[in-house]
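Possible regression after last week's pipeline update?

I re-ran a chain I had predicted before the update to compare outputs. Posting the input and the new output here so someone can diff against the archived version. Not blocking, just want to make sure nothing changed silently.
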Amino acid sequence: MVTLKATLKKSPDKAGHYPLVIRITKDRKSVFITTNQRIDAKHWDNTNHRVRKSHPTSQRLNNYLNRQVAEVHDYALSVLQTNPHITALQIKHQYQAQTQATDFFTFAEQHLQRLKDRKQINQYNIVQGGLKIWRNFVQQDFLPLTTITVPYLEHFEAHLKQQRNASPRTVMNYFILIRTIYNRAINQGHIDRQHYPFGKGKIQIKLPESEKVGLNKAEVEKLEHIDTLTPAQNHARRVWLLSFYLAGVRVGDLLQMQWQDVRDGRLYYRMNKNQKLVSLKIPQKAQAILDHYEADKQSPQDFVLPNLKGTNRHNPTELATRIKTITRNLNRHLEKIREKTGIDKNLSMHIARHTFGSLAGGSIPIQVLQKLYRHSSITTTVNYQRNFIHEETDEALEKVVNF
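New output (post-update):
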């Protein structure tokens, strides 16, 4: 017969906290499985083997302990059926070996390494930041995937909204990250899909629609003609307009453009987001901005824009860090420009892309826009562009109400 109970270890750690453990007893011999959770002794009810309500997260800890005890108990019973003489120590070692193979953070590290190997540094930094928030919530360094249940994720959602004031979109981004890592474990055969907490009747990931607002033609013309800017503001203005003139090219790609990418009146570059090759005819307005910067050109390998001068382009981490800083500074200058022009919309580098989409509206065939945006799927283009196409609904509304 085997018995299991949640309890406290007798010895505290250096901070004076007592580790919560699961005690396995068989044939009058006991061993302990750590839970990576620690509390003050005053918060422990030794009679009922529960965390007292005086602890700020007592409900979450007790739910966690109950799940862990039940999981270890089920495992012990299954191995006893095949080996009645197994010892408590053997049960512990075999259980730990099995659960170690399903540690969430093990697969998270694999995911991070994959992003790093692909030199997707921006995505790497985003994932790393997301995992930091998740790790702070779970309060442990080892997390069996079976622990991540629907109630567990619902509690995480409540934590994000209440403690971090996260938007619905931000919550979904965290769920997407957790799902991606969970899928990695499933694809490698380390956990059965029956434990999967996502899908119909479980946690469903639905991205809320976000408002995408671009500038109108008159507002773009204000940017084109304003002449009361500082040199730094004028540079930010040119960078924004260059992005807009080139079909909303992303700022990271724009900053990394080299003179060797500009040939025969066309721009050739590889998008950092999806590594797709792009070839665009350079419009006359864009060429005028390029001519302005060409005076500083010394070699074909020079960056077109001066912001990344001196940056090691072969160091992805350094490059990503510099681009993030430069973008932040450009956006600060654009905010000053917005105030000077009297534009009452948000003005940032990314708005250049929204502005192109807004002015393109329904006047350009969707297949052409897909090529300009370099979307892998035309569905992505349709979903993106519908943020800016309102003519049909506007006309329908007018027909109904104007009688």
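Follow-up from reviewer: compared with the archived run. Strands lie at 2-8, 18-26, 29-39, 44-45, 50-51, 262-263, 266-270, 277-281. Marking as no regression found.
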